[in-house]
Amino acid sequence: EVQLVESGGGLVQPGGSLRLSCAASGFTFSSSWMGWVRQAPGKGLEWVANIKQDGKEKYYVDSVKGRFTISRDNAKSTLYLQVNSLRAEDTAVYYCARHGYFVFDIWGQGTMVTVSS
Amino acid sequence: DIQMTQSPSSLSASVGDRVTITCRASQSTSSYLNWYQRKPGKAPKLLIYGASSLQSGVPSRFSGSGSGTDFTLTISSLQPEDFATYYCQQSYSIPWTFGQGTKVEIK
After folding, report:
1. Are A94 and A38 in contact (CB under 8 A)?
2. Residue B105 is inside which H or E element, if any?
3. Rounded-to-integer distance, Cα A105 and Cα A85, Å
């Protein structure tokens, strides 16, 4: 079964950090572009970051550049998102997704990040 | 950045109705336009890619059309399981951007 399972979310104070993880199964992770998409409460979907198969190309939305880092471990079929210097506006459900040919075709269930004092 | 604008933001419809949702891009995205369905508590689901290609396993009552800046998602006969929020997304250029969503509710 094709599956993406996120973990690592939680409640964190402004300025804090978290590392989100996404475990992939059922497809060839090492051959896939991967990405993170988030949805803030009551808001729409927002693409956050993407990473190439070998990890050498990474792209970010401007609002997270310098604070978030996407990475991957192909041996473990796991995607990561290190989120630092968190702000209230980063509060959202974070989804891991496979970025196929110009499309997010497989999605996880999401992990909630709440930034609050 | 390419801005995506959907209309309407919400609509009420009955089972069996034909439903049309439009998506307009602030600049041409060629046919790099995708549609997703999002139900509460569930992961987004890809419905249409490349403006008009139906994702495997998606019912044929869903269809997409358009190119350039104007796109349409049509549900030919609304079913109870189709009540959800629908998002368009351009994959023409980074940053990939989504529309604000269209919530389809039961009339």
Report:
1. yes
2. strand B102-106
3. 30
Contact B89 A44 (CB under 8 A): no
Cα within 13 Å of Cα(A10), Cβ side: 10
The whole-angstrom separation of Cα B107 and Cα B11 is 9
| Cross-chain residue pair A45–B44, CB shorter than 8 Å | yes
Q: How many CA atoms lie within 13 A of B34 on its CB side?
A: 23
Residue A36, classed as helix, strand or coil, is strand
Q: How far is CA B61 from the centre of its chain?
A: 13
pLDDT digits (tens, 9 = 90+) for A50-64: 999 999 999 999 999
Q: Taking 90 as the threshold, does the pLDDT of residue A98 lie above it?
A: yes
Interface probe with A: pick from B33, B36, B96, most Cβ of A within 10 Å? B96
Residues 7-36 of A with CB under 8 A from B: none
- The answer to whether residue B94 scores a pLDDT higher than 90 is yes
